[in-house]
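re: ur question from earlier - yeah i can do the single chain one, its not a big deal. heres the input i used so u can compare w yours
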Amino acid sequence: MTPDDLRWNVIPVAPAENPVGGKTTVASLETMRSEKLEGFDAFIAVADTGGFAAAARRLGMTTSAVSKQVGKLEARLDARLFRRTTRRLSVTEAGHALLAHARRAVAEAQAGREAVAELGSEPRGLLRLTTPLSFGILHVAPAIAQFLARHPGMRIEMMMDDRVQDLVAGGYDLAIRSGALKGAGSVVARRLVASDVVLCASPDYISRRGQPRTPEDLLEHDTMLHTYYPEGNEWVFEGPRGRVSVTLAPRYATNNALALRAVALDGGGILRTTRIIVDEEFAARRLVPVLPEWRLPPIELHAVFPDRAYIPLKARAFVEFLKTRLAGKSFTARG
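and the output i got, formated as tokens:
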């Protein structure tokens, strides 16, 4: 771990004591769950999946059992949480008002149970994580089979989306995010890897259109851009003449890095992307650097957790595993 890594923000949890003696088990912890939380898991699952059958599959229950739990919760609250028709199911205003609170309550109760159950144990249970689509396909998905083989008590549910997800509202244990952390005061983060941001193109494109010599030369070229880049169409370089800013009108823009890479490989233009996305293409010379003496601001990828006192072992174990896999790779010019 390097000095600039963000450390784990974990509060040690003391072993639970059983007032009648003996060891507190996971089963006995389940009985400690307040009846105020009864039905919350079913309610959240139905809201997330959009149906009782899908929620039942997620929870490993029967559809009738899920429906019964939600019905009891509605009766206890004296409020309808879902609007049901023959074609669709939607969350009511009361349901939306309850949902975020229910997620927090269930997450904290689960964290408490896991804190005790994990003492001296292996990671287990369902890990829900969200990751950028391209990074998830290239670097997270290839790690999952090995991780699950190492931890047979684990299950993983991964949502890949380039938009920033609300960890609490989405019920996620972990998110992987690139670039500057937003809302840094409300999350706990661990640095995973750094990556250069590069310009590149196919050798065919360069042979047809020539190699740009200065940032201003890009104005005469076909350029491509990820629509979620915070800088937008303004590309700011550091190089031989200091800082140079160029505002471009990309020929092609989309919200997915792999879709951009595909067009670049086919000779469609000059792509701005992270080295993480094109590292193998660089090594095989399927894509070549453009303006290598001019640098764009690099990025860092972080593992991000909901801001709570205890980070579950299952989340910590996965991040340590992923960080170890990435440690053997270099996506920066400085190594």
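DSSP finds eleven helices and 14 strands in the chain. not sure if urs matches, ping me
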